Amino acid sequence: MSASPLANRAARLIVDLDAVAANYNRLKSLAPSSGMAAVVKADAYGLGAEAIATRLIREGCREFFVATAPEGAALRQTLNDPAVRIWVLNGFEAAAASRFTKAQLAPVLSTPQQAADYRASGLTAPFALHVDSGMHRLGVSPKDAAALAAGGLAPTLVMSHLACSEEPADPMNPAQRARFLDVASLFPDARRSLANTGGVYLGDAYHFNLCRPGIGLAGATALPGQAHGLTPAARLEAPILQLHDLKPGDTVGYGASFTADKAMLAATVAAGYADGLPRSLSNTGWARVGGVKAPILGRVSMDLTVLDVTDAENAARAGEAAVLFGEDLDAMATAAGTLPYELLTGIGGRVERVAG
Ligand SMILES: *Cc1c(COP(=O)(O)O)cnc(C)c1O
Hints:
Elements lengths: L4 H4 L3 E4 L1 H14 L4 E2 L1 E2 L1 H5 L3 H10 L4 E4 L2 H10 L6 E4 L8 H6 L3 E4 L2 H10 L6 E3 L11 H9 L6 E3 L12 H13 L6 E3 L3 H4 L9 E2 L22 E13 L4 E2 L5 E2 L4 E6 L16 E4 L2 E6 L7 E4 L12 E5 L3 H7 L4 H6 L6 E4 L1
Helix pairs in contact: 2-4
This protein binds pyridoxal-5'-phosphate (PLP).
The site of pyridoxal-5'-phosphate has 12 residues, from helix 10.
């Protein structure tokens, strides 16, 4: 049993694992003829990779993607079944060979040098080849892929990544798909993977053999205003530590950047930018107290933020939880000038992750 937020006087992240499972199954239902992996890099987008992966195993997921080998090694401790594949997106180098072997990690190779190093290392685990279809981030060029195919490279998976999957009408999508198909056809025995969360929503033509959603598992997308049928799976909560009656002329926080122009009730909550509440939400963002919108007053500081709870007077008591991100995650990301991805992965290390 986890301590209550009041006892800890600290923010916590409530992770709804049933919602994660429902999101996984919702994405699967959109791509019924494709396999469905789970991208759990950056501690499953801040939600906690161990809990998320353990739950998704129960939903039948057998392939996971992480960014780095240390992330993969940590995940392998949780998922010690060798039949569960852990792909490492950031690639391979000879110096990491023993780490890949020990944790049974499968590299996603993205340069000819990595392919040569992998071959020379004598490792026999399956590997993937990442093809650059136009994003110019990771991946071999189509020309290099052709040379590798001619040299007999035999990946078990060929994959690429979409730059604009959240914009269904963007011409980048069909252009990347066409380039990906050209290269994938050089490796006829390999499975194919192109779609992240946004790609799942682009339809059948983008699903191929394996989809790789990440953000959708958390119930967020970057799809503007589209009914995606996903459920927000995480809620950042912080307890109210103290209340203040403000009089006209009273100021709040560092820099005295907010001045009350009327009598107000203010609540100080135990979350600040060290917990992942961006400072850019100063005087701009909001939380919910008893379901009522409570605007942020003054600057978000490291450990504390002050809310206007004048309209939430009935719920505003010391110990009551203010919800900082949850249902409002997408709107808060917009208010902060960022994306749900950055808000979730920015949630601080000291924030306890609690199943609920
Ligand atoms: C992060 C990542 C994903 C997951 O993307 P979402 O938009 O979070 O679904 C898939 N593939 C690659 C290569 C990635 O880097």
